Amino acid sequence: MAEANNGALRPAKNKWNIPLSVFFKDARLVFKMDSLGLEILRIAIPAALALAADPVASLIDTVFIGHIGAVELAAVGVSIAIFNQASKITIYPLVSITTSFVAQEETIEKMSAQELNQVAEASPHQLGDSVEMMSQDDVLGKLEEGSTTIINKDDCLPKQDQKTKELAISSPEKVEVGGKRHIPSASTALFLGLFLGLCQTIFLFFGAKMLLQIMGVKHDSPMLKPALRYLTLRSFGAPAVLLSLAMQGVFRGFKDTTTPLYATVAADGANIVLDAVLIFGCHLGVSGAAIAHVLSQYLMSFILLWRLTREVYLLPPSLKELQLGRFLKNGLYLFTRVIAVTFCVTLAASMAARLGATPMAAFQICLQVWLASSLMADGLAVAGQAILASAFAEKNYEKATAAASRVLQMGFVLGLGLAVVVGLGLQFGAGIFSNNVNVLGLISVGVPFVAGTQPINSLSFVFDGVNFGASDFAYSAYSMVLVAIASVTSLFLLYKSYGFIGIWIALTIYMALRTLAGIWRMGTGTGPWRFLRSPSLS
Predict the structure, then answer these.
(1) Residues 42 and 112 in one domain
(2) Distance CA 446, CA 448 (A)
(3) Same domain, 433 and 532
(4) Adjacent-strand bridge partners of 181
(5) For the CA atoms of 299, 300, 301, 307, what is the dihedral angle to 10 degrees?
């Protein structure tokens, strides 16, 4: 039996109690709009819409550039691929870690303020005998060590909140919960975002020509000049891109995905207007397209920064408050994970390219639909991560279990719905992408894989959010490396035997293994999920 201690449950010692039933916990409530269901949707829907806004804006961007000329469109396409790839390996770890850490720290700060209010109401002068104040790093250390009691009077108060403590000593007035906060992870995320953005600018600006040559743009290619011009100009927007995404991670940690949605829509709208003005009105061509994109990214950063300064103290009291070590340690795990994920998908695309122009065209269309349909699942992943990070910080294992089960069940149902929509849409609407009979024929071959894998794709992406919410970054990295090794092996074997179909079978195996890795961790009650072996939570 689990032992209760201050509201927390210690895991049972029976190692054979495998909690697979957790995935079916309260499954009948999957569509219920209770407090948990509403909290998930309140976070997931704006997050999904914000994620979907960028591809739509990019599509409109492509239409504008397409009217300049085919060479310019191809040049910009290569440049965007380089820019996105350079950004992805830093963006994903930064945003994911920021969301979890901010959610944990905000929860701890709220708990500390509530504790201070309770003590102040009982006897304000008792605070004069409080123990030495601890930083949030110390409190988070207690969480990681598994301590069941993380609050002792003003233990959880940030060090700089001496004025709050003095106020509580002199007056029984309550400390406001939800006002302007000191969140060290927010300051650290912005510092790292700016630093990484500047590094990316330098790398892309001075290495643009070399990178384009690596991508196959020869020195005598007509694409070289417009591609070089576009990439060097876009490089100046890298700090804004990294900063805005770091701030999105902060807002997600606050469970606020509406603010990033508004900022994204405003920036994308400005990008579209500036495209028309600079490309055609000012006759700047691809340079106008690059400038429009850079200006829109800085607009987004300004909006998010303006909103964030109203909620958070962005400048830490000292450099010691920055959690660089904690960020870099876990960031390295996710960096490894991103490399493994990118390598699998990139290798599949390169193998499709070796089959010829027609198979590659069909594969690219199927792949884009396959990836784009995951946006809704990513919204659920964001919701699961934010809610779970807060629940783990509170050691509220009941809520952690309920939230993880609910988002996974919602993800599976979403995947079933996407399978129908994607299957019918791609089967009957493929003509939107191409009028080539051979390409359409290969797309129809890929439809069963693109549509049929939607349920496991959705589960896989939601499991990412669940693992990140539990701060299980190491397992996410190690398991993905093993998944990548198995997937790459199957990719080589199946490609040689079955060509186009073999690639899609290998990608199906890849997503299935990702999902199984999530099921194994949580379903066996290991790592941060050890508490699931408690009979009272199984």
Answers:
(1) no
(2) 6
(3) yes
(4) 312
(5) 110
Contact 518, 381 (CB under 8 A): no
**C-alpha to C-alpha distance for 480 and 247, rounded to whole angstroms:** 26
Cα–Cα nearest to 418, from 460, 456, 464, 455: 455
**Cα first-last separation, the chain:** 11
> Residue 4 is inside which H or E element, if any?
strand 4-5
What distance in Å separates the CA atoms of residue 150 and residue 498, rounded to the nearest whole number?
A: 57
Does residue 406 belong to any structural domain of this protein? yes
Query: How far is C-alpha 151 from the geometric centre of its chain's CA atoms?
Result: 30
**178 contacts: CB under 8 Å, gap ≥ 6:** 110
Regarding whether 128 and 45 lie in a shared domain, the answer is no
393 plus 528 within the same structural domain = yes
Say how far apart CA 522 and CA 467 lie, in whole Å: 9
Contact between 109 and 158 under an 8 Å Cβ cutoff? The reply is yes
Rounded CA separation 380/217 (Å): 39
**Residues 168, 127: contact at Cβ < 8 Å?**
yes
Q: The domain containing residue 121 runs over which residues?
A: 108-170
pTM of the model: 0.76
CA proximity to 368, closest of 321, 283, 301, 425:
425
* Amino acid of residue 117: N
Using a 10 angstrom Cβ sphere, with 0-12 exposed, 13-18 middle and 19 or more buried, the burial of residue 283 is exposed
From CA 480, how far away is CA 359, in angstroms rounded?
28
Query: Considering its fold, how many domains does the chain have in total?
Result: 2
Q: Rounded to the nearest 10 degrees, how much is the dihedral formed by the CA atoms of 189, 193, 196, 197?
A: 180
- Contacts with 267 (C-beta within 8 Å, 6 or more apart), sequence order: 244, 296, 297, 299, 300, 303
Cα separation, 451 vs 373, whole angstroms: 9
Residue 381 sits in the same domain as residue 489? yes
Output Rg (C-alpha) for the chain, integer angstroms: 25
Q: What are phi and psi of 148, to 5 degrees?
A: -85, -15
Enumerate the H helices of 276-309 as residue ranges.
285-309
pLDDT values of the chain reduced to their tens digit, one per residue, 538 residues = 444 444 444 444 444 456 777 788 877 888 888 888 899 999 988 988 887 776 666 667 667 776 777 677 777 777 777 777 777 777 778 888 888 888 888 887 777 666 655 555 554 444 444 444 444 455 455 444 444 333 343 444 444 444 444 434 444 444 444 467 777 888 888 888 898 889 999 998 998 888 888 776 777 778 788 888 888 998 898 899 889 988 988 898 888 889 999 998 899 889 889 988 998 888 888 888 889 989 999 999 999 999 998 888 777 656 666 667 777 788 788 888 888 888 888 788 878 878 887 787 788 778 878 877 777 788 899 999 999 999 988 888 899 999 999 999 999 999 999 999 988 988 888 777 777 788 888 888 888 999 999 999 999 999 999 999 898 999 999 999 999 999 999 999 998 888 889 999 999 999 999 999 999 999 888 889 988 887 655 4
- Are 469 and 399 within 8 A, CB to CB? no
